[in-house]
């Protein structure tokens, strides 16, 4: 059986970028490709945005049309095969497809910029905090499913935080560290955990204080993922309706500007640790 891949979602997006670039290099419009190959416009669009995997038959037809040499075809075919492998996260049955893709890309990212308003970022949560949060969000969720989700999140933390070659920037609104989740003891342990993590060289954790006033992130939760491969940055926006993906250039620039503004209002790392320490003492 094929070994589950660490990041098939990234390979799919890497292939999508390459195919779109090949089409543009040949001077073909999307309508010309769909006409010649009998693809529907939506099929080609999903292939070129990485929203669907591509079979080798369709890949061969595109490569013939784009006059791709054998070596480049083999490289693209390897990406196509890798993109169709089972994600390691899909084996954890409690994760929905959008979360599986997010975990894939989070795993592969070389830079993660994350902002949260009223909850602690998932990668920074203690198991007790995660468990209490899930009970509050979905009170009818069975205990076994909560345990499975807590385990999956802990595994994601272990994998992402173990790498020392990626940049992790987390900005939290002060509301996130003041809102008591799971009781005072759970919250105190969570705040102390943030202090400990903030001392890691590749992890930046900073808080935007209430005194900063109005800022662009007050009504939003989002994560910006960047990659070493030739893949466009991806923004994930979290809401009550679920995770929404943004990969359009204008949208990425908008969220990057928002993060930069929020980051400029955040306390320094040392002042953030002082605030976290005071908040933890108040939980006593």
UniProtKB/TrEMBL annotation:
InterPro entries given in the database record: Cro/C1-type_HTH, DUF5753, Lambda_DNA-bd_dom_sf
Residue ranges occupied by any HTH cro/C1-type domain in the UniProt entry: 19-73
Matches recorded under Pfam families: DUF5753 (PF19054), HTH_31 (PF13560)
CDD domains to which the protein is assigned, alphabetical: HTH_XRE (cd00093)
Gene3D superfamilies: lambda repressor-like DNA-binding domains
Gene Ontology MF term list: DNA binding
Domain of life: Bacteria
Protein's UniProt name: Helix-turn-helix domain-containing protein
Organism of this sequence: Cryptosporangium phraense
């Amino acid at each position: 059986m094929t070994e589950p891949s660490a990041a098939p979602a990234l390979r799919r997006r890497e292939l999508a970028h390459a195919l779109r670039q090949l089409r543009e290099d040949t001077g073909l419009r999307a309508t010309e490709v769909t006409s010649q190959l009998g693809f529907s416009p939506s099929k080609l669009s999903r292939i070129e945005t990485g929203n669907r995997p591509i079979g080798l038959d369709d890949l061969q037809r595109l490569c013939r049309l784009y006059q791709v040499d054998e070596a480049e075809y083999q490289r693209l075919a390897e990406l196509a095969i890798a993109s169709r492998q089972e994600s390691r996260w899909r084996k954890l049955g409690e994760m929905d497809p959008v979360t599986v893709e997010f975990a894939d890309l989070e795993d592969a990212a070389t830079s993660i910029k994350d902002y949260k308003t009223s909850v602690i970022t998932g990668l920074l949560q203690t198991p007790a905090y995660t468990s209490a949060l899930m009970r509050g969000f979905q009170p009818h969720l069975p205990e076994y499913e909560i345990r499975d989700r807590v385990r999956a999140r802990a595994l994601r933390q272990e994998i992402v935080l173990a790498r020392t070659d990626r940049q992790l920037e987390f900005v939290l609104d002060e509301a996130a560290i003041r809102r008591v989740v799971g009781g005072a003891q759970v919250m105190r342990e969570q705040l102390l955990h943030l202090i400990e993590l903030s001392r890691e060289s590749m992890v930046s954790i900073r808080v935007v204080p209430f005194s900063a006033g109005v800022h662009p992130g007050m009504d939003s939760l989002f994560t910006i993922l960047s990659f070493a491969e030739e893949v466009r940055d991806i923004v994930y926006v979290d809401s009550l309706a679920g995770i929404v993906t943004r990969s359009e250039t204008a949208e990425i620039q908008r969220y990057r500007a928002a993060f930069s503004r929020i980051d400029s209002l955040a306390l320094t790392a040392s002042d953030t640790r002082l605030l976290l320490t005071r908040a933890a003492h108040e939980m006593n």
